[in-house]
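To: structure desk
From: M.T.
Subject: fold request, one chain
Message: Could you run this one when you get a chance? Sequence is below, nothing fancy, just the single chain.
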Amino acid sequence: MKKFTPIIVGMLGIIIGCAIGAWWVLRMHTYLEWHWWSSSNSTQASLAVATLRNIRSGDSNKAIERMEFQLDRAVLGLADSYRECPLPKDLAIPVSVLVRARDYRAENPRKTENSSIDGAVARAFDLASEAQTNLPIQLSPTERGYDSTSKQSEP
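Reply: Done. Structure tokens follow.
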């Protein structure tokens, strides 16, 4: 029995250490996930409030510029996710959103004061075009953001 005692104690220590480590990782994951979501939602809410105030005060140019900024930010994030994520590249959701944004921006061109942002957005739209042609199925007009009754559907 004395021969097995150190082995049992060692195994027990490893098991307890693994359990504590797993608990800590789960807690940290939950905390980081909460932090990411709350930060993201806080930013969106703040921009929405500012945009709504601009609209209600009659300053539609500022509201439009703010929405265009949000679109650029979302497009860059989606393109980065699509490039970096190891998920299947045939997933049409990010591609369809990027295609809708690309089509909108083609109808409503915009240049910022920062050429690097303009270049990054253009590269994201190039990625959308490339990804759209590489999808095993082509996006339907509905998936691209159009319906059969109007040129552009409401979001």
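Reply (cont.): The chain has four helices and no strands. Let me know if you need anything else for the meeting.
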